[in-house]
Amino acid sequence: MCAESADKYKVDSVAEQEKQGISVLRAASSITMSVVGIGMLVLPRTTAECGVIVGICLFFIAAIMTFVGGYILWKSLLLKPNSPPGTIIPTFESLGLVAFGPLGGIYFGVLLHIILSGVCAGLLVLQASISLSLTKVLNWRTWIAIWIAVGIPLSWVKEFKNVGLLAIAGVTSTLVLLAVIIAACIQHLVSEESPGPYTLATSDPWVLIGSLATYVFPLSHPLVAPTIMNAMQEPLRYPLASAIASLFLVVLYGTVMILGYFAFGNSLLTYDTIADAIAPTTGTLSVIGWILNIAIIIVVATHYVVLLSPTALALDGLVSAVSRKWGLSARVSLFLVLASRSGLVILQGVVGIAFLSVNKLVTFLGAFGTIQISLALPLISYIRLKSLNGSPV
């Protein structure tokens, strides 16, 4: 249910507009816009850490990994035992349940919510950074605490009625953000002296592993596969949509990564994200800096609302089950629901304060969860479902 909710917010407006199903190109567009987010902000810095040659190689490896993982997941979703051909397993959690039973469903679901909450924590850190850049007062931890206070009452809203408007605002601001980052990098390349020397490669294995995990994070799209497959006119053509989306993401992210690194060089190692390099928290902001910060605020706000909802709804279900079991009154149950949602936001803020870095959070999430969701879990699910269906792998 929760994975379905996470995906539903991202493709719901498309599904409503085309009741008969969406085309391959529309599906590719939905995949792309579901994935594009804060992950792109850390790509240039990651390239500075591992070197431009190694970074490009790892970036392409990550793109291949996520595409192959999406392809395997597509095949897995069509392998529901004792079902008519063409039946699609509806959610990522359901895949775990069908393949491995209740414990599998729980693990898939818990992993999903850890990743979603981790991204929310990163969004709070990014929002704090932007607030500091705009105001030049207080510090990151204080601003995170302020945004926790703002997020708590927002978390009490059970449903956002205008999901379509929310999606439009998020997509528009994301496109503006991309354009501003590219424009700022080009301007910096043209108007400033070379920030070189540049790092070509590193042989540190831990840096290589961390960089690969970071590159996987913004490219990971298998999570949205169940909902988009169910929304397509021809679900069997999902791999084509995935290939188109992957190609577009490689071009998009590759442009940001290469331009960002060549514009700012190894000076990126002193910043958390490319946004901090373009619009630093000290000094006077340029026009591009202001536009960048405003775009990020809108991106963060829309993404936070969308990503918070699935875990909040899961907590609602858990609290409702406990309330029924213990015979609690409706008022007490409501109080517990609001308290659990508030606690979720506070926990995300605490994680943000602990890491105090979008880059570190993205690397951690990539290594801990995204690689599992993008490749490992689809692969073992495919093997398990083939076995349950009595077919050779």
Care to describe what's here?
- The protein is mainly alpha-helical and about 400 residues long.
- The protein has one domain: Amino acid/polyamine transporter I (Up-down Bundle), CATH 1.20.1740.10.
- The radius of gyration is 21 Å and the shape is globular.
- The N terminus is likely disordered.
Highlighted features:
Amino acid/polyamine transporter I; disordered N terminus; 393 residues; single chain; mainly alpha; 77% helix
Q: What is the approximate shape?
A: globular
Pattern of helices and strands: HHHHHHHHHHHHHH
Instruction: Kindly state the percentage of residues in helix.
Output: over 70%
CATH architecture: Up-down Bundle
CATH topological fold name: Amino acid/polyamine transporter I
Question: What gyration radius follows from the Cα positions, in whole Å?
Answer: 21 Å
Low-pLDDT stretches are 1-19
For the record, what is the CATH homologous superfamily label? Amino acid/polyamine transporter I
Q: Helix segment count? A: 14
The number of distinct β-strands equals 0
Largest sheet: none
Please give the domain count. Answer: 1
Our estimate of the beta-strand percent is under 5%
Q: What would the average pLDDT be, to the nearest integer?
A: 83
Pairing-aware structural class of the strands and helices?
A: mainly alpha
Q: Gap between N and C termini, in Å?
A: 29 Å
Q: What top-tier CATH class fits best? A: Mainly Alpha
